[in-house]
Amino acid sequence: MGSEMVAPVIIIDPDIMSGMPCFRGTRVPFKNLIDYLEGGHSLGEFLEQFPTVTREMAIQAPEEVDY
What we know:
Elements: E1 10-11, E2 22-23, H1 30-38, H2 43-49, H3 55-64
C-alpha cells in the first residue's frame, strides 16, 4: 500500500473568514457542510449551493476535522 500524502482540504487562515475552518481555495466554512447534513439536506444539495467545493473535498473534509 502506498502512503500518498493528500493535501488538506480544510484550511485555517486568519485572513480568510477570520480564521474559521474553510474549504481550501474557497470562503466556504466547513461548518456549512455539517449544518446542511445535520439539517437533513443531502450532500448533493450542499454541492449545488456551494459549487466551489468539489464532491471529493466534501468527502475528505470530515476526516481532517475534529468536530
